[in-house]
């Protein structure tokens, strides 16, 4: 049996061991927590010190690029799809100091995502929105986040999605300023399109091809430009989702380069749109094989299958007709407006020639099993000139060009 | 004084507490370590399972884009400058599964870097190469890393830099396959240029403007294309480094979008060059204000101030003269070669018109204090037709265009 002295010694030993253990525990927890925080910053400053995360952004004012960079904090952007393009898009907006981000996705992080930027192997198994919010908060705690781990295309979720883009702004009840589509399938794009047509919300589309070497971004203003239903893609997955394809040993190729470029072009367009600088692009393509960047624009289709799109077109026409012609004189504060027909200084013309498009086109890819041509253009429809507004090219021409790409 | 019973109770209490503490310590350490590792992968597989980080890259073979994707593991790339462009460049190459990366930088991570991708606030104070290596290793432990925390422009470091690009390949003693310049100043670019001319190593240049809204990438093949000394930039910082400017309250603007796009275009060009697909660009510019992407190419200047460049030009001429004209027939395995004069299927012509360049040019920016025009083009030199090879535009024209940009 132990003596008092032996027991006292043991108590001292244990106490010392416990102190050491607690120190180690604290150090390990500190290391974890360090990754979570920098203090919040109340006001964006232009001060040039190493500790100011906004100095290089505020310098855009001194350089004469942006008039009021701080305004970025007043905007809310919804990012639908937090994959190869969406995650980088959310990170860029976070680093730029956007006011609030709404993230929508229902996928989990997998090691198979590691060939694209943003997610890290230790996040495998977490939901993409949860993992993204954790990383983005640690990058910039000044941004507000709202995440939704669901598929926006199911009935209930779609209703909730509509509600959130209508009233999930920085101030609850206010709409979000812009919706970004960074999804990888037709159904989700159509859902966003339907919601934005009904609510009259401006959105931007993005996409990357299955062979990983081309992509595009597109600005959609309901009633003014072609919506996703005005000129849907010719080729879509025939009701077979990515998971079914994967079970059959087939997957799309992807590259961090193409996805990074598309995210960069998308967020650049967002910054130009929100902060009113440069020329906002209606459509900008990226062909990585040839380093070719086609641009174009399509007016809304008066025979669009989406009735809310047709209603928005009526509304747009009515507003255009009501606009006083001398507007440029009345609104002197908006000096930068180049084209009178909208407030972003952009115009609806195609800047790409047939020859250029043809030059950038490769062979038509073999469609994997389960992928079919979504529809054919009926010949009788294309004979009426009504389908196309005042663009120089007919919808038929543009669709024929899309097929060649 | 404590009784034996009391002491025994205390020992039991302490033992239990110690167990709990050790459990917590382990959990916290696990959480830390989780962020460090996924197991190494011996052979790249195309298997379509969620746990395969290479499935979407290997799919490039099935899509007919790349013949032999696995070859990426045999290449070594040196990235000089691990800032806004270099860090994303290194991350993209890491995620693509490059064999080995050499990273050179002498800067520390600061909160002022947080408006660009890659670094996180908790890394502030660490050296950029150390922080980058830590993150990149956790993203892809299959890549080998070698980091050098020094300024390559000082005499001793320059000698060591030359030695490492000559013999720092995957197999020690072999040269690196490609050097990427992602630096932000004239002296460092000139140092890389000097080293690559002397060693006859191919490199790619990248750059982003001070106002954050334009950038470029460029492929430089010593003896064949213009080197950095053949047509140096007209405007450089007059011996005043970034730190001095910062002390005076001046800093360049930067955006995660422009830097991400430039890094994406750079690494895309690297992949096309190393894995032999698509068309490798000699020069690709990015004007974010207009979404304009000029391309061009410049032949080497026979009157270049760098004697190693002139020597490489002689060597190149000699080799070209020795090349048998029927080569295309002899080397049947290289089916994809479009142009006979090099192995990358690229040609030296300007693809941008004067009008296009002019359209994309803004006003000449005000130069901040300490920034001067580096030189003027002597009129007598430009009168001899010798300076320009077989390009359609004279060096003088191209320089005049550069000045407009």
TrEMBL record, chains A, B:
UniProt source species: Gasterosteus aculeatus aculeatus
Domain THIF-type NAD/FAD binding fold positions: 54-305
A biological process term (GO) from this entry: protein ufmylation
GO cellular component: cytosol
Record Pfam families: ThiF
Annotated protein name in UniProt: Ubiquitin-like modifier-activating enzyme 5
Annotated family: Belongs to the ubiquitin-activating E1 family. UBA5 subfamily.
Keyword Zinc attributed: yes
Family matches, as InterPro entries: D-isomer_DH_CS1, ThiF/MoeB/HesA, ThiF_NAD_FAD-bd, Ubiquitin-activating_enz
GO function terms (MF aspect): ATP binding; metal ion binding; UFM1 activating enzyme activity
UniProt keyword NADP present: no
Any coiled-coil regions, as ranges: 4-34
Keywords associated with the record: ATP-binding, Coiled coil, Metal-binding, Nucleotide-binding, Ubl conjugation pathway, Zinc
PANTHER family, per database record: UBIQUITIN-ACTIVATING ENZYME E1, UBIQUITIN-LIKE MODIFIER-ACTIVATING ENZYME 5
